[in-house]
Amino acid sequence: MLFAEIVATSAAVGSTRSRKAKIESLATLLRALAPEEIEPAVAWLAGEPRQRRIGTGWRTLTDLRVDPADAPSLTVMAVDEMIEELAGLSGAGSVLRRRELVGELFAAATAEEQSFVIRLLTGELRQGALVGIMTDAVATAAGLPIAPVRRAFMLSGALPTTAVAALRGGLDELSKFELEVGRPVQPMLASPAEGLADALAELGADISVEYKMDGARIQVHRNGDEVRIFTRTLREITPSVPELVSLVQALPCESVVLDGETLALADSGRPRPFQETMSRFGADTGELLLHPYFFDCLYLDGVDLLDEPLSARLDALERAAPDHRIPSVQRPTDEAATDYLVAALRDGHEGVMVKSLAAPYAAGRRGRTWQKVKQVHTIDLIVLGAEWGYGRRTGLLSNLHLGARDPDGGPPIMVGKTFKGLTDKLLAWQTEEFPKHESSRDAQTVYLRPEIVVEIELDGVQVSRRYPGGVALRFARVLRYRPDKDARDADTIDTVRGLLPG
Ligand SMILES: Nc1ncnc2c1ncn2[C@@H]1O[C@H](COP(=O)(O)OP(=O)(O)OP(=O)(O)O)[C@@H](O)[C@H]1O
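That is the input. Now the predicted structure with adenosine-5'-triphosphate docked in place:
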């Protein structure tokens, strides 16, 4: 197939707001692909190259001015081979070879193809909703229900591989996907509850009420002595958390997959700020010691527990890591649950999670069987740009433009601006960091690619004629940046609209 067909389908998907129409055009294309073209094409149309990181910077791509070809001639396989070579380059001479390769690719590409390649390789195409839409399209093209496709994707974490299995082998191939120790699965997520009373009313008496600790999510895989640790976005951080690795190696089991939260504690035993925990996920190991608090067990000594009820998974957790469980109570009375929430807040935590003990582990889903009860209202938004400050903030990037995710895969939708809550440290950080994510600028504003997620505290939202989504934030202030999330984890415009009064 010609690469131009992929580019045309991507444009068609981007030009309609209808989810159904997007799925239809993707499915039509998927049906026309040769077997070896499925992996690259699915990856590209879901927003990233199948090799994920290719090490070619924004500058290399945008500085290169090569006249586009008049007519399309590149094939899917030719482009995939070039990207494969780009991804494999390292060491002496690689900068030169990289420019050469990109130059070759661009010379053979039409203007539309060049633009698509730039957006693909710089991550600009990467939007969470595209992944959801592509999952649906794979099911449609293969003539299968969505559930087995979604399950295989959650277990493999790889949509292109899932697509090949669905399109070539159908249900039989999909059913071969299993939880595999060492390969991370998408984490189960929670829905916000209106308050504790609502969560208790909805989930009934068969529940676990747990501290909602304000750290960073970790997924731990151990097979014998080998331990691997992943973040919420399935990035491996094993080398930077040696204390967690040795703790997991000492657990009384052979093989295990655990889900939990990790954080650093102050001498008083209270949690240290989230930023300090996150700093440990970077390159250096730092001084702060991280503690794990596990709340789920997905696999223990040869037994896959994903489809078991939470009650059984907690029994396994008790066997595997009895000393490292998150504080929790099972089947409390309403009064005891309320006391537990008060105690969690008093101890410096965010609130509680209320979970149905009967529910399986719904990997990658934000369901209602886990509900979070927090005291303040916060949402995660995408930073679209920042304005240069004035007065005391002259020379610093300050006022943030905030966008909510479009659940249909379009670009983020702006819902407000704020400079409240920005400390001097954050202002300095923004000024240094934002230009690395710059897509364009004018005299007043640096615009960013949709890559940075910030957690915003707000009093509510109101109807707005100024903003394209019809809603605007009220009294928004920055709580913190969320380096553990990417744009696909941000809240959607529907969530923001859901906060409208009445
Ligand atoms: N006991 C717990 N059970 C599950 N998750 C917990 C618990 N304590 C803390 N957490 C954290 O809370 C998150 C659950 O909320 P949610 O699924 O909405 O994720 P989130 O979008 O990261 O939410 P938030 O921004 O509130 O942390 C988990 O990702 C995890 O990091």
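The first strand starts at residue 189 and ends at 192.
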